[in-house]
Design brief:
Length: 149
């Protein structure tokens, strides 16, 4: 497994320069490192912030699983989407509100054809709400298909 978490991960994360706002580090409740977050009040409705994970060593014709923690806290906080590069510009994963403030786990299968996926983008879209945040943490890449729950 490749640990791409923000506090001590080995992966290459980049802020997209063409978006409307950046993702910023936020301290975890337990004080153990940090996660990346977009507070609800940043930007204007429909503004986007994109955080890109650059992937270099994925082998062609193999499958991987991207596992991550996410949280959509707050009323009408917006949307969190995940895109894989080299694929259609439609998200492979999307969530638009949390039932509660809890962290949940997202899983995405990445199938490599002859062309390999060289990046994964986490996109936050600003909603109508003024409180809460969208957060992402504990991003891990493992070989093979995603395990069933």
């Amino acid at each position: 497994a490749v640990d791409c978490s923000f506090s001590r991960g080995v992966c290459d994360w980049k802020q997209d320069a063409d978006d409307d706002f950046d993702w910023n580090p936020a301290d975890r409740d337990r004080g153990d490192g940090y996660y990346m977050a977009v507070p609800a009040f940043v930007g204007h409705k429909k503004d986007m912030g994109r955080l890109k994970l650059l992937l270099t060593d994925l082998k062609p014709k193999s499958s991987y699983c991207l596992i991550f923690s996410y949280r959509l806290a707050g009323e009408r906080v917006g949307k969190l989407r995940v895109f894989l590069a080299n694929k259609k510009p439609t998200p492979v994963w999307e969530q638009n509100k949390g039932k509660d403030e809890r962290w949940r786990t997202g899983k995405i299968d990445i199938f490599q054809g002859a062309e390999t996926t060289n990046s994964v983008t986490f996109e936050s879209e600003r909603g109508k709400g003024k409180t809460g945040e969208i957060g992402v943490d504990n991003v891990i890449l493992i070989s093979g298909l995603c395990p069933e729950d």
